[in-house]
Amino acid sequence: MNRTYTVSIYSENNIGLLNRISAIFLKRHINIESLTVSESEIENVSRFVIVAAMDEDQVRKIVGQLEKQIEVIKAYYHTDEETIYQETALFKIKSSLLFDERQIQNIIKQSNANIVTVARDFFVIEKTGRRHETDALYEELVPFGIMQFVRSGRIAVSKSEMNISALLREFQNA
Amino acid sequence: MRFQGYAFSCICDRCILQFGVTINNSMETLKEKLVETETRTTVKISGAEAVIHCLLEEGVDLIYGYPGGAIMPVYDELYKFRDKLHHVLTRHEQGAAHAAQGYARATGKVGVAIATSGPGATNLVTGIADAQIDSTPMVCITGQVARHLLGTDAFQETDIIGISTPVTKWSYQVTRAADIPKALAKAFYIARSGRPGPVLIDITKNAQFEEFDFSYKKCTAIRSYKPKPEINPAKIEEAAALINSAKKPFVIFGQGIILGKAEEELRAFIEKSGIPSAATVLGLSALPTEHPLHVGMVGMHGNYAPNILTNECDVLIALGMRFDDRVTGDLNTYAKQAKVVHFEIDPAEVDKNVKTHVAVLGDIKDTLAGLLPLIRENKHEDWHKEFKDRHAIEFEKVIKNDLFPEKEKLTMGEVMEKINKRTGGDAIVVSDVGQHQMIACRYARFNKTKSNITSGGLGTMGFALPAAIGAKMGAPEREVVAVIGDGGYQMTIQELGTIFQTRVPVKIVVLNNDFLGMVRQWQQLFFDKRYASTELINPDFVTIAKGYHIPARRVTRREELDEAINELIASEEAHFLEVCVEKEDNVFPMIPTGASVADCRLE
């Protein structure tokens, strides 16, 4: 049964690794829904967060293939219930609406969104939350006209521990 | 002097790698230089020269390649070091890659191939893909356009890292000379450790010219890479309990035994437990063919008994093999009655195709050694009889006609049988891909390990001729017989030039049926005999061989065969033999694609 899995990868920060990782999904026709790469809690270690829909057998095999890559330190997979996850959306909107349409101010307040900047011609709203929350804000703002909309990939931390530091210490002591 | 034992980091200069300290052989050459330039405290050499020193440090004395613009600085150094590092000029880069594979497969050492940028690099790719799927340790070095030209569509620029990523164990582009030693140290470590595989190092031309302070330390560990999983003794105990309780246990061994140097451990295990054991194509020769417990080969054109009885065993013990689809046929009907024990070094292979009951991870030499004392002695005589009975059926319906035909036309099988007789089973048999390959794997006798060299996973036609060159150079004391079909032979036929130039005494047998035989067989069986583009109008192979000054002979009649094969094997130089065989013979037994091993067909 297909469901959404969050694949987390701790890796060395090397050119070309992204290619290797995406190829593993590509080869199995698994569509990557979102991919985020950032630094991790460990110095010089990168963290990938990849979201894709597949069944558990597939995700288990994919994690096996990922871990096989030389520069991958460790890979995990989790269901939505096993992670805390968020996405960020940015909405660029005409500045005049902020004054002409009082309703917009209410929408921003009620949705716990922030105004990032206000310029002469436009202002930018930022909303961080789960997909359905940014989607809801989007639906509310659409009638007023959105100049630009963008949403980030998912970032997620697992509820359970990922013992990368211990793993790396173990290597250094070996 | 800077080339003494200081730790350096990974190529990315970010992650921490541990490099062991080794004493440099090539340091002597460098020291000579140092004496010459007494006023200097460091020795600067070019990146190109560093490549040679790295190869010498790794114990390489033979490489295969083809020069070109972007790799010329390295070739210039090869000229300088030609008495220490022998370079074999092949006639095509694919030949260099396959020759390096043949060398690696015959010796267990890392094969090295070198090529220029662009087409030179892309021509290596087939060999790299072949090495990846057959777990062959290989390091490929390619030249690349200068760093400032990268991404400009420069002459002979190609993104070889991008192209080769899916078919390499690791790859890296070096753009600074100072990174060359670290990259190559890592390359050799990765290629040969754990489950071996091909590594590609792409070196820009500027990095080959640049001078830098050279130092070399072998790589012995990489923190993000665990070549061998830790052994869990509880799993070995579980495996032993299952094996001891089995009434009809069955072993399938793969190339993991050869790569893991576990031939003795395999033998000790099966001799103590008395378990009938079959090889995969790449596992052949890990156990002598004539061993009483060797029950043949599994797979699409494997033997009848081991295929059929795969679905009757109660415990299936897979040793260093990966349940390829050519072995299993339809997975939904594969060994469903059996408990599966899988000994494997690569955790990603466990439960990939066949669900296992007990997975014993680790280096198979160690895990089998751990298993042996826990195994109860057994004979399994009734169970062996089932193999013998089925073998008798196969002998009657297939083998007899293949090896001792009564029809007029020659068969591929009888040629193999004559080769066996003449070599006694001591030869390395290098086969190409197709009908002749399956016949060679079915009938060649192997007394020693590392004797069956063939393109198993990728099925690369054109593999055998260059691979035989590499095998013979790697194991000059052994007889090397390349058995090739008339189709595959013409895919790398130009390597006859390499044989002539190097005088490498390989023995070439072309089994000519004027067809792409395996495809024709499928067309006959599954496509209503519509022989689309499978018939070959062939040239005069004898004349071609003679054009390369290789003694050559053609045989069309049975009476000539014995003498021709005697002449072939007795020759101390390269020798070519074309045997014209029956045009439309088929290879049986056969498990059609998607069918169950239980539906192994004898005709």
From TrEMBL, chain A:
This is Acetolactate synthase small subunit. Keywords: Amino-acid biosynthesis, Branched-chain amino acid biosynthesis, Transferase. Belongs to the acetolactate synthase small subunit family. Signal peptide: none annotated. GO terms for cellular component: cytosol. NCBIfam families: acolac_sm. GO terms for molecular function: acetolactate synthase activity; acetolactate synthase regulator activity. PROSITE patterns: ACT. One of its GO terms (biological process) is isoleucine biosynthetic process. Catalyzes the conversion of 2 pyruvate molecules into acetolactate in the first common step of the biosynthetic pathway of the branched-amino acids such as leucine, isoleucine, and valine. It comes from the Bacteria. InterPro entries: Acetalactate_synth_ssu (IPR004789), Acetolactate_synth/TF_NikR_C (IPR027271), Acetolactate_synth_ssu_C (IPR019455), ACT-like_dom_sf (IPR045865), ACT_dom (IPR002912), AHAS_ACT (IPR039557), AHAS_small-like_ACT (IPR054480). Its EC number is 2.2.1.6. It is an enzyme of class 2 (transferase). Residues 6-80 form the ACT domain. The lineage of its organism: Bacteria, Pseudomonadati, Bacteroidota, Flavobacteriia, Flavobacteriales. Pathway: Amino-acid biosynthesis; L-valine biosynthesis; L-valine from pyruvate: step 1/4; Amino-acid biosynthesis; L-isoleucine biosynthesis; L-isoleucine from 2-oxobutanoate: step 1/4. It catalyses: 2 pyruvate + H(+) = (2S)-2-acetolactate + CO2. Dimer of large and small chains.
